[in-house]
Amino acid sequence: MCIVLFLVSFLVATAEGGRDAGLVTRVKETTVPYYASPSELNAYWQSVFPNRPIPSSLLDHLSAPSGNKMKDMEKEHYWSVYSDRLTEGDAKIFHNWAHRIASEKLLYPETVFTTGSKINLYIDRAVALHSPYLHRDIADSIPMSTKNFTDIIAMFAPVSPSMARDMWSTLSSCEHPREVAGEQKACTTSLESMKGFSALALGTGDLRAFSTSLDVPEEGISSPSQRYEVAAVRAITPRVATNTVTCHSMSFPVALFYCHAVNPTRIYEVTLKREGGDSIPESRTPAMVQALAVCHVNTSGFDPTLRYWVKLGLKPGEASVCHFLTRGDVLWAPASAT
């Protein structure tokens, strides 16, 4: 909350020089530059999606952090690992390397989503889950670019070195081109722009949004020594693949999502039960989990050097690639497909 208040103060101060006068005018027209309560957020949601539930991952941004605080460590998110060290020419190398790291544990073949299957469960941690949503007029006024990094840092001061690194990494990731053939992508800084990109990518404004259950902890799940059994599988979209958009929460002081569409996809709600259940003392993994899984059906444009393909003994295009969504991700799909 104090970050956003400082943002307003910064905008007012810099506007005296005239550079951000238009921005400050919009700040003054908005009593609070961010969604301040669940009721305000829900009012907006119901105005555009009447009688449709708001995903829990969006409401998380209005609550205080819960659970264990994450230590300052290198991120495993493939779009935030050291991307601040890369030039445009290195983008493809970075993309391939990071996907290779992620594929070690985060990717699954679609065949595992059948009742009775047993897997080591890996769900990435949610990033910046409690960063506040700016109203669109304010969000659109902030020049989200590495070229304006010094100004952006000043807006959110004081900023620690690790926070500055994450902010640069996020902005840099948004600017790098993606290498998966046919992928559509955008970084969105407001609910309105997230909905707008999803509508554009999917060709309809009649959308439904989904998120992973609150059963999944913010810090994610890593079970190298404990296996989970698939207890139930429900298809969110029909077995016939459809187009969807997935938006991933990124490391930033205010809500910023990396939204992309690698289509077509199939979406599943998967219920998993840990082997041993509650009988395992002091287990750090939950006994029961309900999570969303996205399966990318057309993988012909995927990196052929992924260890995922080596493990399956297949090539891109010969099998789907699936992954679980984190607690902070939002999935968008045409209402007609759900």
UniProtKB/TrEMBL annotation:
Protein name (database record): BURP domain-containing protein
Check the record and name the InterPro entries matching this protein: BURP (IPR044816), BURP_dom (IPR004873)
Q: What is the lineage of its organism?
A: Eukaryota, Viridiplantae, Streptophyta, Embryophyta, Tracheophyta
What positions does the domain BURP occupy?
101-335
Please state the span of the N-terminal signal peptide per the UniProt entry. 1-17
Keywords noted in UniProt? Signal
Quote the Pfam families the UniProt record gives: BURP (PF03181)
Can you tell which superkingdom this protein's organism belongs to?
A: Eukaryota
Q: What is the species of this protein? A: Urochloa decumbens
